[in-house]
Write a structure and sequence with these properties.
Distance between the termini: 37 Å
Number of domains: 2
Pfam families: BPD_transp_1
Helix content: over 70%
Keywords: Cell membrane, Membrane, Transmembrane, Transmembrane helix, Transport
Number of helices: 12
Membrane topology: Multi-pass membrane protein
Subcellular location: Cell membrane
Structural class: mainly alpha
Shape: globular
Oligomer: single chain
Strand content: under 5%
GO cellular component, one term: plasma membrane
CATH superfamily of the largest domain: MetI-like
CATH topology of the largest domain: MetI-like fold
Length: about 280
């Protein structure tokens, strides 16, 4: 391939990448633009590509002064942080045990973890509602966190196990010879090497719980316990939808996701790719 042909190919690839990026960012821009429009300008024909005049009424009236939105954001924060903490506390030692200890049927267990991830949340919601009702966990943070962990923990173990497998066994044995116990060798040797994987798991667990809708709808009938995703769905009703208010809340809900990916993108990508080098 000549240099000119190679440059032309790179140019086409770059152009294709730009078009794909625009296609992905256009809905995000339209959401932001709609949130800054007045209700009378939303259905203008032809549609206004840029909000004029810009108004923050939807943010002040719906996001700031609506008590349900603030409560929903607080609930989602508690659920997402709790899910992340519990997932790491369970998945990290479990993944290390499956990687280092002589456990029978490890391959079968990993297959089961993969299968669990393919089960839709809606199929788990009804059995969980029955079980949690008997345990008095409906309309509670504990119930919602446990429900989210049922999907987050298998994925976390699947991601973390290759990291612990990549740590040479000789290094672990050398640490034990130097006086470390199995637990201290795990904390001082294996865990620091797996920091990118831990960040990846923490981010995926947090974002999964932050955007979860089915469990919040099925296990939180009390409006005071509902996460922001359920509150957001409640802004649409049979009497009409105030799209600028709905988009304003959507922008606020999307902000944590955007911030996490902007600041932790390299850890997420590196964690997913590095952990896949050994299985």
């Amino acid at each position: 391939m000549t240099a000119t042909a190679a440059q032309r190919r790179r140019g086409w690839l770059s152009a294709g990448g730009v078009l794909i990026t625009i296609a992905y960012l256009l809905p995000v821009y339209w959401m932001l633009a709609t949130s800054l429009k007045d209700s009378s300008d939303i259905f203008a024909t032809p549609p206004d590509l840029f909000p004029s005049p810009i108004t923050l009424t939807s943010y002040t009236e719906t996001v700031v002064n609506h008590a349900g939105i603030g409560r929903g954001l607080l609930n989602s924060t508690v659920i997402a942080v709790g899910t992340t903490v519990v997932t790491l506390a369970v998945a990290v030692p479990a993944a290390y045990a499956l990687a280092r200890l002589r456990v029978r049927f490890v391959a079968l267990l990993m297959l089961l973890f993969l299968v669990v991830q393919m089960i839709p949340a809606v199929n788990l919601a009804l059995p969980m509602f029955v079980i949690f009702s008997r345990a008095d966990l409906v309309n509670s943070y504990v119930g919602l966190i446990l429900a989210n962990c049922s999907l987050a923990i298998p994925l976390a173990i699947t991601i973390l196990r290759p990291y612990f497998l990549s740590v040479p066994g000789e290094v672990i044995e050398a640490a034990k010879i130097d006086g470390c116990t199995t637990w201290s060798a795990f904390l001082r040797v294996a865990l620091p090497v797996s920091v990118p994987g831990l960040i990846t798991v923490a981010v995926i667990s947090f974002l999964g719980a932050w955007g979860e809708f089915v469990f919040g709808l099925a296990l939180a009938s009390d409006e005071g316990m509902q996460p922001i995703t359920v509150v957001l769905a409640g802004l649409t009703n049979s009497f009409g939808t105030r799209w600028n208010d709905l988009m304003a809340v959507s922008v606020v809900v999307a902000l944590p996701i955007i911030v996490v990916f902007v600041f932790l993108q390299r850890y997420i990508v590196g964690g997913l790719t590095a952990g896949a080098t050994k299985s």
